[in-house]
UniProtKB/TrEMBL annotation:
Belongs to the mTERF family. InterPro entries: MTERF, MTERF_sf. Keywords: Transit peptide. Residues 24-46 have a biased composition (Low complexity). This is Transcription termination factor. Gene3D superfamilies: Transcription termination factor 3, mitochondrial. Residues 24-57 are annotated as: Disordered. One of its GO terms (biological process) is termination of mitochondrial transcription. GO terms for molecular function: nucleic acid binding. GO terms for cellular component: mitochondrial matrix.
């Protein structure tokens, strides 16, 4: 606990350090907007004195129940602009006073590191699960990554926890590592509830499969196994049946993607249904095991892609693109829309996008920065019409490293094709030692064909190129000098 802090409703708040004078006794409160009288101040003082005489445990209980955020401490020093922006977002999203929002932000500095859009989505999701009053008692829940609180809520619900509160979502790890027997003794799970059977009730597997999964658990699992271990056994048994593969293959998949073990069974079932019924991804060992990360896709996001995005890259169905690049299934729908608009604003053609569908998996900010970086380099800027332009954007870090390596050997930036800068490491090693770059003449020919507007420009270029060091910048300069406008 911070020095001079006062714990209120599970959060650290600031208490007013100044004593109100008699002239300011009737001034409006900064928190509630109401006026107070000297008599009320004396009553408050007497109640505070009485509370201080109570045992520590009772005082903590009183603090926990007090949720009016009416006692605040002045922040040390001025509040910067970033903090003011976050305070405004919290005040508008939660419908609370600026003083309450200030206490939340100043007591949980991690909120400042969260993007505004993510914070607002988190608050919207939390408001759909809990009353705002309960959320404000545990402001640390705002710092969770998007979707984590909802997934914890569903997992606790599936395990049979009777009443789920923000406090229990925050204590998720502690609850899931306890056996069902201990939680029944504390009253969190009903005495007649069997955790394994309750988990299976959220799945669509037949009775025979349920019996097989239950038979794989020890008879004393309510005492010997934690909730997390029981859930893990049920989840892996369900996946083995749903995908038609062995437990060993499921174990290998989870080892590669550990977050699959933490997935809500409701989310997992709904995600698989959407993948097989709407995105036409075959629910088989070959497709799912090869792209196990698709099991981490949020079903709500998949539905948003179907309803809001529909088409990308010049009219291609988003369901077809998901088959070409399954990674898109994990990209937020709003990001896909922003990337599409960004590429159009920079003049990127649908043909170029279709050559690098993976570009949609990058954030719009990253794409914007890399396109601007390309425009500052003359040798790269002339390649804006190259069909593989987005490969240079997608593999920017790899390309930058390889350019530094090649420049040490005296190779100019314009003398290297995009194919070399973005190819696999084994292929690059071969080109690096052999010195051959067959993609460079092709890129130059395609560029001149675009400038001349003639298909025969490719043959013309192949005839007149002066060797392997001809670059697109040199070709453009030569064309301007020799071809009259």
């Amino acid at each position: 606990m911070l020095p001079n802090g006062l714990r209120i409703g599970g959060g650290l708040c600031w208490k007013l350090a100044r004593t109100a004078s008699s002239s300011a006794a009737t001034a409006p409160s900064r928190v509630t907007g109401t006026t107070s009288s000297p008599a009320s101040s004396k009553a408050s003082s007497r109640s505070s004195k009485h509370a201080s005489e109570l045992p520590t445990r009772q005082r903590r209980r009183l603090d926990f129940c007090d949720d009016h955020f009416g006692v605040l401490e002045e922040p040390e020093g001025p509040v910067n602009e970033q903090s003011r922006a976050r305070i405004q977002v919290l005040s508008e999203s939660l419908g609370c006073s600026l003083a309450s929002a200030t206490s939340i932000v100043m007591g949980n500095r991690k909120i400042l590191d969260i993007r505004k859009e993510t914070l607002m989505k988190n608050i919207g999701m939390l408001k759909s699960l809990f009353p705002v009053r309960d959320i404000m008692r545990h402001p640390e829940i705002f710092t969770f990554t998007f979707g984590m609180a909802e997934q914890r809520y569903r997992n606790l619900e599936e395990c049979g926890i009777k009443i789920i509160t923000p406090a229990r979502v925050v204590r998720y790890a502690d609850l899931m590592t306890q056996p069902a027997y201990s939680l029944k003794l504390s009253g969190l799970i009903a005495a007649e509830t069997d955790a394994a059977t309750h988990l299976l009730s959220f799945l669509d597997c037949p009775a025979g499969v349920r019996a097989e999964i239950l038979s794989g658990l020890p008879l004393h699992h309510p005492i010997s196994l934690s909730l997390a271990e029981v859930k893990r056994a049920v989840l892996r048994g369900y996946l083995a049946w749903r995908l038609g593969c062995s437990r060993e293959e499921i174990d290998a998949l989870v080892k590669k993607y550990p977050s699959v073990d933490n997935r809500s069974l409701q989310f997992l079932r709904h995600t698989i249904e959407l993948l097989t019924n709407h995105f036409h991804m075959p629910c088989s060992k070959a497709s799912i095991l090869r792209n196990g990360f698709v099991l981490l896709a949020h079903p709500g996001n998949l539905e948003a892609q179907l309803s809001q995005v529909r088409h990308l890259a010049g009219g291609l169905d988003v369901r077809e693109l998901a088959g070409l690049c399954p990674r898109l299934l994990t990209v937020p729908a709003e990001n896909l829309i922003r990337v599409e608009r960004l590429l159009q604003a920079h003049g990127v053609t649908p043909a170029q996008v279709q050559r690098c569908i993976r570009i949609y998996s990058l954030s719009p900010e990253t794409i914007e920065a890399r396109l601007q970086e390309i425009s500052k380099v003359a040798e790269f800027d002339v390649r804006r019409e190259c069909p593989r332009l987005l490969n240079l954007v997608y593999y920017a870090s790899k390309a930058r490293h390889r350019l530094e390596l090649l420049s040490q050997l005296g190779h100019p930036a314009g003398g290297v094709s995009i194919n070399v800068l973005s190819m696999a490491a084994s292929d690059f090693a071969r080109v690096f030692y052999s010195g051959s770059d067959r993609g460079r003449p092709r890129e130059t020919a395609e560029y001149l064909a675009h400038l001349l507007g003639k298909p025969e420009a490719e043959d013309f270029m192949l005839d007149v190129m002066t060797g392997e060091w001809c670059t697109q910048t040199h070709a453009k300069r030569t064309l301007i000098e020799t071809v009259p406008v």
